[in-house]
């Protein structure tokens, strides 16, 4: 375990150097990891674990598109691919990677198979933290651990295949065997994490729900829509509005932020741009602070969890989500984006 100073604050970080893959394999050598759910994280984690040499099986609803996807990813019916009940019975580490709302309906099935000494693994603190809403209360004799990749399961798999690793947080909620900590770290390494940051279930879910509703997804889409709208209403063409709002952001400036920080991106723009951005960023910060505080309160009060569960448990919810995404995709803004993306290949 390394102590690393982040902006003046010491934090505990696990690196692959001190907890190499061989050690992770050693810790989990007698375990069968049953990955339950094959949505986005399910495939990423199950395939990385399998390729890393762990003993993995997948549990999924039969006659679902995810079942077919699992088969096409090389999981074999009756050998490494089972209905949820069977996989949970075979698994000694039950990796609960169902949707957060879906975990509620399946919980009694998993709970029944969580015999003493087994491990319950999550990639989110949701089910445990919001137990008043989920009723997920694990038996006392099992370890309860978390490794939560800080990014999409798609990126987790892509980075793994390219030899990299996505950073994850990890936590122990319940240590029944005295080995929960090393199992959590070993799972984190096994699924293909780069660095592992220690947290607890509550902090993980509060920060994660705030991040995705805020800057990472909700605020990102919202501020893009607002600026595009202003530019269009002031007479700019779709392509001009899109290029100045999205294309330059994703293709030129955000990669520079990722590479070397905000000041580096600023320093690579004109003095005119730097002056204006430095003058205006405070206005944007102040304008969004109340919204972000309201969002955090909504997360901490359980309101966000309640809404996720309520909406996520209704019949036909996947189709509703699809329809909302289609509306986004078919908007002038994102249709313009589709055309602009096609032009990228021509300019290569
Ligand atoms: N999507 C990500 O990249 C990501 C990143 C970090 C953490 N997580 C966490 O990982 C977990 C899994 O997320 P995900 O996005 O992969 O899930 P998801 O929403 O894609 O759902 C996973 C699977 O659950 C199945 N499912 C849902 N309800 C069910 C039910 N009642 N019975 C049986 N199966 C059901 C779905 O068919 C799907 O195959 C969640 O806790 C999530 O918060 C996800
Ligand atoms: C990929 C995200 C947004 O980081 C994750 O938290 C999720 O819920 O999918
Ligand atoms: Mg999330
Ligand atoms: Mg997240």
From TrEMBL:
<dbReference type="GO" id="GO:0016853">
    <property type="term" value="F:isomerase activity"/>
</dbReference>
<feature type="domain" description="KARI N-terminal Rossmann">
    <location>
        <begin position="9"/>
        <end position="199"/>
    </location>
</feature>
<feature type="binding site">
    <location>
        <position position="248"/>
    </location>
    <ligand>
        <name>Mg(2+) 2</name>
    </ligand>
</feature>
<feature type="binding site">
    <location>
        <position position="208"/>
    </location>
    <ligand>
        <name>Mg(2+) 1</name>
    </ligand>
</feature>
<dbReference type="Pfam" id="PF07991">
    <property type="entry name" value="KARI_N"/>
</dbReference>
<feature type="domain" description="KARI C-terminal knotted">
    <location>
        <begin position="200"/>
        <end position="347"/>
    </location>
</feature>
<dbReference type="InterPro" id="IPR013328">
    <property type="entry name" value="6PGD_dom2"/>
</dbReference>
<comment type="pathway">
    <text>Amino-acid biosynthesis; L-valine biosynthesis; L-valine from pyruvate: step 2/4.</text>
</comment>
<feature type="binding site">
    <location>
        <position position="212"/>
    </location>
    <ligand>
        <name>Mg(2+) 1</name>
    </ligand>
</feature>
<dbReference type="GO" id="GO:0009099">
    <property type="term" value="P:L-valine biosynthetic process"/>
</dbReference>
<dbReference type="InterPro" id="IPR008927">
    <property type="entry name" value="6-PGluconate_DH-like_C_sf"/>
</dbReference>
<dbReference type="GO" id="GO:0009097">
    <property type="term" value="P:isoleucine biosynthetic process"/>
</dbReference>
<keyword id="KW-0100">Branched-chain amino acid biosynthesis</keyword>
<dbReference type="InterPro" id="IPR036291">
    <property type="entry name" value="NAD(P)-bd_dom_sf"/>
</dbReference>
<comment type="pathway">
    <text>Amino-acid biosynthesis; L-isoleucine biosynthesis; L-isoleucine from 2-oxobutanoate: step 2/4.</text>
</comment>
<protein>
    <recommendedName>
        <fullName>Ketol-acid reductoisomerase</fullName>
        <ecNumber>1.1.1.86</ecNumber>
    </recommendedName>
</protein>
<dbReference type="InterPro" id="IPR013116">
    <property type="entry name" value="KARI_N"/>
</dbReference>
<dbReference type="InterPro" id="IPR000506">
    <property type="entry name" value="KARI_C"/>
</dbReference>
<keyword id="KW-0560">Oxidoreductase</keyword>
<feature type="binding site">
    <location>
        <position position="270"/>
    </location>
    <ligand>
        <name>substrate</name>
    </ligand>
</feature>
<keyword id="KW-0479">Metal-binding</keyword>
<keyword id="KW-0028">Amino-acid biosynthesis</keyword>
<keyword id="KW-0413">Isomerase</keyword>
<dbReference type="GO" id="GO:0046872">
    <property type="term" value="F:metal ion binding"/>
</dbReference>
<feature type="binding site">
    <location>
        <position position="244"/>
    </location>
    <ligand>
        <name>Mg(2+) 2</name>
    </ligand>
</feature>
<keyword id="KW-0460">Magnesium</keyword>
<dbReference type="Pfam" id="PF01450">
    <property type="entry name" value="KARI_C"/>
</dbReference>
<dbReference type="InterPro" id="IPR013023">
    <property type="entry name" value="KARI"/>
</dbReference>
<comment type="similarity">
    <text>Belongs to the ketol-acid reductoisomerase family.</text>
</comment>
<feature type="binding site">
    <location>
        <position position="208"/>
    </location>
    <ligand>
        <name>Mg(2+) 2</name>
    </ligand>
</feature>
<dbReference type="GO" id="GO:0004455">
    <property type="term" value="F:ketol-acid reductoisomerase activity"/>
</dbReference>
